[in-house]
Amino acid sequence: MQTDNSDIRAELDQLKAENERLRKQLAQTRADRKEAVDALCKFMPPPNLPSEEEMIEQLKYAVPAEQVIREMDEILKNGGK
User: Fold this and answer.
1) Alpha carbons 23 and 61: distance in angstroms, whole number
2) More confident call, 47 vs 8
3) pTM > 0.90
4) Sign of the alpha-carbon dihedral angle for 14, 16, 17, 21
């Protein structure tokens, strides 16, 4: 019985050590990934996003998806014409 407990404790200690090693590896991998992404982002131009006013202007001419689907359904019902 004592041997079983010591075997279990030894295995538990081994698993705890492996868990800690994996946690450190994960932390290092995340740090490396962040460093790589930051380095890549330095070479990328800043995104050219429209201003709020430009977006509002563009939305004035947008057609709702529901309307497009309705119109396509009507065309299909009429044999594609």
Assistant:
1) 52
2) 8
3) no
4) positive
Give the span between the Cα atoms of 50 and 56, in whole angstroms: 10
- How many whole angstroms separate alpha carbon 52 and alpha carbon 59? 11
DSSP state of 46: P
Cβ–Cβ < 8 Å for 61, 54: no
Taking the C-alpha atoms of residue 70 and residue 60, their distance in angstroms, rounded to an integer, is 20
C-alpha span between 71 and 77 (Å, rounded): 10
What does the pLDDT look like over 20-56, one tens digit per residue? 999 999 999 999 999 999 999 999 988 889 899 999 9
Structure tokens at 43: 């070479």
Residue 40 CB contacts under 8 Å (≥ 6 apart), including other chains = none
CB 81 within 8 A of CB 75: yes
Give the tokens for residue 47: 């995104």
